[in-house]
Amino acid sequence: MPQNKPTLQFWLLLSFLAFIWGGAFFLAKLSVSEVPPILLVFFRVSIAGVCLWMIVALRGSALGLTLAILPNFLVLGMLNNVIPFGLLFWGQQSIGAGLASVLNAFTPVFTMVLAQLFTSNEKLTPLKLGAAFLGVLGVAVMTGVDAFTGSSDTVLPQLACLGAALSYATAFIFIRRMANVPPLTLAIGQLTSSTLILLPIVLLGGDIAVATNISWEIWGAIAALAVISTALAYLIFFRLISMGGSTNTSLVTFLVPVSAILLGTAFLDERLALNQWTGIALIMLALLLIDGRIVDFLRTRVLRQS
């Protein structure tokens, strides 16, 4: 069956998700100054998982978790948490949060290519392809040329962030086989699986000893990263996929750099430059093109006049 047409509620939720995920890049950049990447991933998924389990306990609702779908959750946890979080946190030890969010904006391009190869109802169209690259151009213009300059020791961290984008895109496609699983069950299943995957790695690697030396400020950043940018975010994320499809939901990565700049303006007294306003405009145009309603409206007007 064809993917759902995005609604106004979809775009509002997508914008809110972009806002809290934009903040996640800053929280992660702050946290990796004291916490090793793998340990930070473990804290993020385990704390978020506990929060969601508490919600289930308070609501007294049944999750419908079965052993039959456990392998799917393990794969989803790897693709949507362990691999991308680890690569992004490792990369952000060497590159800035802004550049990491720009590289993460390639997720929709990877998603569209994978959807073309492995799905039958989210096929790539020239309009979507053009809009996707317009969005990537927007985030590149917005951060400016300086974001991409640097010494050769930043090449691998940048590639790691692109690898995270590819992992996210693969997760978007994989989630399709779990379309009938409720959003809360999906979120809890993947976060719990990710925690179980990382627990022996953290214990055997010895990174857990670092926890005694983490400052209270960094613990606050970790808590916000886990509770807001993960637990709450994934509830919204899986809801969006059910509302508008995986390709449309992947567009959130176009908006994340926008929210990062707006957060900097609001809380760090930063000011938007001309290139940043231009980039935001390009991103908005890309989203409008992919949404399709303006294109349909213009096409109808032209047909009526002809």
Protein architecture, described:
By secondary structure, the chain is an all-alpha fold. The chain has one domain. The protein is built from 13 helices and no strands. It is globular and about 70 Å long. The mean pLDDT is 83.
Sum this structure up briefly.
This protein has 306 residues and is mainly alpha-helical.
SSE order and pairing:
Elements: H1 8-31, H2 37-59, H3 70-91, H4 97-104, H5 107-118, H6 126-143, H7 155-174, H8 183-205, H9 216-244, H10 246-249, H11 252-267, H12 274-291, H13 293-305
Identify the notable features of this structure and list them briefly.
single chain, mainly alpha, 13 helices, 75% helix, 0% strand, globular
Roughly what percent helix?
over 70%
Structural class: mainly alpha
Count of alpha and pi helical runs: 13
Assembly type of the chains comes to: single chain
Largest sheet: none
Radius of gyration: 19 Å
Mean pLDDT rating: 83
The first-to-last residue Cα distance is 33 Å
Number of structural units classed as domains: 1
| SSE string | HHHHHHHHHHHHH
Strand elements, count: 0
Low-confidence stretches: none
Shape: globular
Give the DSSP E fraction (strand runs of 2 or more residues): under 5%
